[in-house]
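User: structure tokens for this one?
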Amino acid sequence: MLKYLLIAFTIISLPAFGQTKQINVSRIDQMPDLPSPYQMRDWKDVARKYDDLVYSTLVKTKSSSTNYPGLQPILLESYIGGNDNAAEAINIIPSIVGASLVGKDKLTWAQKTKDFFNKANQQNIYLNGYSNISGNDWWYDVMPSVFFYQMYTQYSLDARLSKSVHNGCRSLVGCSSSHGRSIGTVGNAGYELSRLVYGNDDRKYEQRYGTRIGRIDRVVIV
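Assistant:
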């Protein structure tokens, strides 16, 4: 059984886009590197309290699923004043990861996130919504998978999650290695995974700069 997953990103830097030298600010330079007295916030306690709040008062579930029959997918507002029927993988999955890392059993909720694997629309990858199309922004195309694999390391013995993880890996590896091409660029570009073609924004970047900027070259599973 696959136990550990590693997403390896190779970033290609161009001289024209190199990092500029750090600028010293005199007022900032006067501040100590380690203030005294200093008290670190108890982030584990914060994670537990966040989980208690969100999963007791803010989380809702849908009555039906999009990709896996029988699931009740999670709904969670992404920000204050947003849509309370929203469902973003980059918000929901990390909330489960954080609670799991501080000892909370979130397996029941973790299983519900399988519906982020966009199977019904043949994207066959974890995306930010339950029925999204890849190819618009590589960050939204890749990060839901990264977060799901991180969550999976906490519940790797669950057979239902294991099958879903393997399907997602095949999609990423297929689009990256079989064609010897990148998934997307650091800009506002993307790679449409269902057709193995670059999105419109990606082509615009290539025409503008004459090359790819900080591309993802490969996905490695270990």
